[in-house]
Amino acid sequence: MLRKEDLIEIGHFAKPHGIKGEVSLVTDYDMASISGDDPYLVCEMDGIPVPFFIESYRPKNNTTALIGLAGIDSDDKAKSLTGKPAYIPSDLFLPDDEDIPKWKYLRGYTVADDKSEAVGTVSDIDDHTINILLKVDYKGKEILIPAALITALDRERKMIEVSLPEGFWEI
Known about the structure:
six-stranded antiparallel beta sheet; about 170 residues; six-stranded mixed beta sheet; about 5% helix; 2 helices; mainly beta
């Protein structure tokens, strides 16, 4: 059974493409890196994570791919996905032997300071410069934590431990 905590959000479904059920997927993930014999995406339907097997994939541009999914064979069915987040099971993207994290996979991880309790949840990653920043939702506000402050990463529990400098919370 699929559990939401075992999924990584990789983007969202945009509008249908054509009349045969193909749908646009807005994502910055390399879909070619999805492993497994039967790769699939997951979409929440009526509160339940539902797998959709990928039948076809073709990049449209740097951030959009056109996806054909099993069972989605009409414009109306494709419209039912519009605007919904797309997920991938974390085990399809995170091989056990991978030591270096790919930053975008850390979305949804809980961040904890080594001096206190949980700080918040990673909502996004700013990797546009050499100084990678975790965008963390902290009590309804976005805070930026440099990835260089990560001291531990637990993929099973989806936890990141950081060592924040003295006075960090007074800023």
